[in-house]
Design brief:
The N and C termini lie close together (11 Å). Among the domains are: 127 residues, Nucleic acid-binding proteins (OB fold (Dihydrolipoamide Acetyltransferase, E2P)); 161 residues, inorganic pyrophosphatase (n-terminal core), CATH 3.90.1640; 103 residues, Diaminopimelate Epimerase, Chain A, domain 1. Helix 6 runs parallel beside helix 7 and helix 8 packs antiparallel against helix 9. Helices cover 38% and strands 20% of the residues. The radius of gyration is 25 Å and the shape is globular. It is an alpha/beta fold. The protein has 18 helices and 18 strands. A 5-stranded parallel sheet has the order 3-2-4-5-6, sandwiched between helices.
Length: 577
């Protein structure tokens, strides 16, 4: 059973005149906004005034000068990307920018299974033979010390643009653009890799193509996809990129994305601005599926494709990869759930290793397990001599710092506080596991790990109306750091229960708030439809007549010209339990 945690109630200052529902204003104040001006700016951000100058990055001028040199000397340039949605979108927007500038750069995305994450020595050798003079990384590179040094020996400059954890020693690169780097000067550290790449794009346009800078807004469709997919906090500049990017996505001109939507039956068009859930559940997984199952080039080629027929072929192939990814993921999740409930039931860290665990999906599986069991989770594919794994963590554990304390056992590692990847020799795997377990056990000593639901506020049934829901909608886009508000309603009665779907995976409740009136007094009743997608088994024991408390999201449901209020159930329990 999940633990419900109520946030402390926050009082609205008496001098506030913001025309928001009091509950919504309290939610924003509880999330750290301090003034009426900050609340107003959060609700109505302005793209022109609220984005930061890219040249606040201390090495951005140096980067732009080197790009200008590459253009003037017609040097061969490589954009070195990553194989996830963040890296793929980063590669695409930088490629577009270089093409507009007159630089015919090639994009190189490594094979996740054979090359692994980030720069690698074999790729550097290939670039030397090809006569490359400049490598610019996106969404990777900050840990590539040996690779950068080798490139420098070959006379190849390396520019690193990344957003991951900065190690104690950084590569000897020509320039580094990473908002986490000490002394970088940039005021917002939470950018995704595509956000960092977009700041580079803005800088290049500002200095080298100022007359065309307005067209960078059309890249925000890809910036929003990469930002949402990488699960960075949707605050500050990220909120701007996603809020405006979703508008651009609804109007996207990209043939490849349009074919992806058609083939995947994803309802994104100009009729309505999509929400972050649509991107995170339907768009990003399909883009990620390419690198997980085949090669990320498939998704990259789809995004940049301008021919409809070729784009349709890419989209169909990507759809097949995504279907295969879903099947493999489901099988491995089931296997690791069995381990979590037996071998790791009393441990603070779930550490699963398997030769058959596909490297392409270990991160995805780790995330699902960590979320379900509320424990940091590692999933490894064991190779003949070396194993590669992905970690997903919980708020109480900064996983990259914990891994860093065990770096003597590792070949390579990188990531951030909630997600990381490592490579380790098999003869050191057990030592690494024991050392990491000890660190995490100590950090979580005395803490009972369980799934926690943070409740933003409590609301009475009589207070729920379309005005409240409209004000909640003003907080969009929702995501990490700006979660959709979870509200508590107490003492509701189940008047009707229906299972949905052929396998009864979903369940709908009709809930009555009758105050002191009997259930049969129709004119005194307020009835809500509450739905739980995937909750058919979880809530199977609840029956008609039960008095319950519900934590939920409040949403407006428009269907066939009719509007109604719907409760999207997060959890429920019997009142008083």
């Amino acid at each position: 059973m999940a633990k419900w945690l109520k946030k402390e109630s926050v009082e609205i200052p008496v001098d506030f005149s913001l025309k928001l529902h009091p509950l919504v204003a309290k939610i924003l104040l509880a999330r750290g906004l301090k003034s009426e001006i900050e609340l107003e700016k959060f609700i109505t951000p302005d793209y022109q005034t609220d984005t930061h100058d890219p040249f606040l990055f201390s090495q951005m001028e140096k980067l732009v000068e080197r790009i200008k040199q590459a253009r003037d000397l017609r040097e061969k340039v490589i954009i070195f990307g990553d194989y996830d949605a963040d890296g793929i979108t980063s590669s695409a927007i930088l490629k577009e920018t270089f093409s507009e500038l007159g630089i015919e750069a090639d994009v190189y995305i490594p094979d996740k299974r054979t090359e692994g994450y980030g720069l690698n020595l074999l790729a550097i050798d290939l670039f030397k033979v090809a006569g490359v003079k400049l490598i610019i990384t996106v969404d990777c590179g900050i840990t590539s010390l040996a690779e950068t040094a080798k490139a420098k020996e070959f006379g190849i400059d390396v520019i690193i643009t990344d957003h991951h954890h900065v190690p104690a020693q950084v590569p000897d690169a020509f320039a580094i653009i990473n908002p986490h780097q000490e002394g970088c000067g940039y005021p917002f550290a939470e950018l995704a890799g595509v956000g960092v790449a977009f700041k580079v794009v803005q800088a290049i346009y500002a200095r080298l193509m100022p007359e065309k800078i307005g067209q960078t807004k059309w890249m925000l469709d890809l910036v929003s996809i990469g930002t949402i997919a990488d699960c960075v906090p949707l605050i500050g500049e990220n909120r701007l990129f996603v809020k405006y990017g979703l508008v651009v996505l609804s109007k996207t001109r990209r043939i490849g994305l349009l074919e992806l939507f058609t083939v995947g039956r994803i309802a994104i068009d100009e009729s309505a601005i999509p929400d972050t859930k649509k991107v995170s559940f339907y768009v990003a997984p399909r883009i990620n599926a390419a690198g997980r199952i085949n090669h990320a080039n498939l998704a990259y080629n789809l995004i940049i494709e301008k021919d409809v027929i070729r784009a349709r072929d890419f989209a169909l192939e990507l759809e097949a990869s995504n279907t295969q990814r879903q099947k493999i993921t489901s099988e491995i999740v089931s296997e690791i759930k069995a381990l979590a409930e037996t071998q790791y039931k009393d441990k603070k860290l779930i550490f699963a290793i398997g030769e058959h665990f596909s490297i392409g999906i270990v991160g995805l599986v780790a995330g699902k397990i960590a979320q379900q069991y509320g424990k940091p989770t590692a999933v490894f594919q064991q190779g003949e001599q070396e194993s590669k794994g992905s970690f997903r963590s919980i708020p109480q554990i900064n996983i990259i710092e914990a891994i860093g304390q065990c770096s003597q056992f590792l070949v390579k590692f990188g990531g951030h506080s909630q997600a990381a990847g490592v490579s380790v020799r098999n003869d050191q795997l057990e030592n690494f596991q024991k050392a990491l377990e000890a660190i995490i056990e100590k950090q979580l000593e005395g803490i009972q790990l369980e799934v926690e639901i943070i409740i933003d506020g409590q609301v009475a049934a009589a207070e729920i109306d379309f005005k409240l829901i409209a004000d909640i909608e003003k907080l969009r886009p929702f995501g990490i750091g700006n979660e959709e508000p979870i509200l508590l309603l107490e003492n509701l009665i189940i008047s009707e229960k229906r299972f949905l779907g052929s396998e009864k995976k979903h369940v709908k409740f009709f809930l009555v708030a009758a105050e002191a009136e009997p259930i049969g007094s129709k004119d005194k009743m307020k009835v809500f439809e509450a739905i739980s997608f995937g909750g058919g088994e979880k809530f199977a024991a609840f029956k008609e007549g039960d008095r319950i408390d519900v934590v939920c999201n409040l949403q407006r449901d428009d269907w066939n010209g009719n509007s109604r209020i719907q409760l999207n159930v997060v959890d429920m329990r019997l009142s008083g339990s």
